[in-house]
Input
Amino acid sequence: MAELKFPDGFLWGASTAAYQVEGGIENVDWAQAAREGKVPSAGQACDFYHRFESDFDVAVNLGMNAQRFSIEWARIEPEEGTFDEREVEHYRTVFAALKARRLTPMPNLWHFTLPLWFSKRGGFLHKDAPEVFARYCRFVIERLGNEADLWLTHNEPMVYSGKGYWDGAWPPFFKSPLKHIRVISAVAAAHRAAYTAMKTARPEIQVGIANIVVYVFVDWFWNHRFLRLIAGYQDFIGLNHYHHRKFGITKHEQESALRSDMGWELHPMSLYRCLIALKRYNLPLYVSEHGLADAADIHRPEFIQNAARALHRAIGEGAPVKGYFHWSLLDNYEWTEGFTKRFGLVEVDYATQERRIRKSAYVYKQLCERNALLDPAVNVGDSLFSDTTRSS
Output
């Protein structure tokens, strides 16, 4: 059995997002939409706001050395220009808990949800949105910037714009191609302003975004448009990856493909292809999200192993990959799907808040602790990464 070794200092972690796990967040656009019956309610979610220390203990026990999480903007700035120092101190305790456990933090400053006051004035389409967002980001960095080296401003801006302004499925529920294009540019402008403000406050930190990248053959608009808009305003790239799009496949291929509980095809080679595609930017790469909904925990063990193979091959071909964060540490609120989809390495009983580590998590534990994959499939060569191979 061969061993695929990873570089020293490689980060192995998992990701969470505030609204999806913390619970008790009611002053955001998503909570308002839930009160109006447009999306499921998040309620107490996983009660991560109070249970983060024990959840970080689980991460340590699973061999991880890093965690990605988000800071809830509406907690920090509940009213425009009014900042809640108690919430700043809460997140300081989160950082302290990570430090005590030797978990490298990767905080994200905005993960889809908007403070109600900001959404009511038009969100990122308001003319002063970049300055408002940059003010919030600078405030956090001035208070907490010495707690982490790696900071993300946005999470999946193309998903946010597509779901909220094209499909009309997410707040603010628009179906407007024009607004869709405008908000992409507006969010990019907000990132540029935030990057400048954050680096002015603490030049030593590294700032990037978590960008969804889909493996497609014609990928400029989806994968590269936003990255071009923020060129020169990022120190690293976070890659979120879940599925691919392939054109011209047969009905048999469609029906025979293995899929997650979200209906997304499990495709071993696409993570590798996306990492190779991002080499062109000459920036450090972190896989900031990668996972699958798999309530029965049937496919996740091999999914994790295939991810490691993809990472190792991409690194071997020159992709500067520095870390991998599985989505997610916990089962959580999955936006319009509510609590029906299970992405966690750790299963959550939402009625009792009991945690149960899934068997697949121990596959990840071995990978994290060894910083290597013991790989019986290492000799399959290119077949694992061919366009016709399916994960099993």
User: Anything to note?
Assistant: The chain has a mean pLDDT of 92.
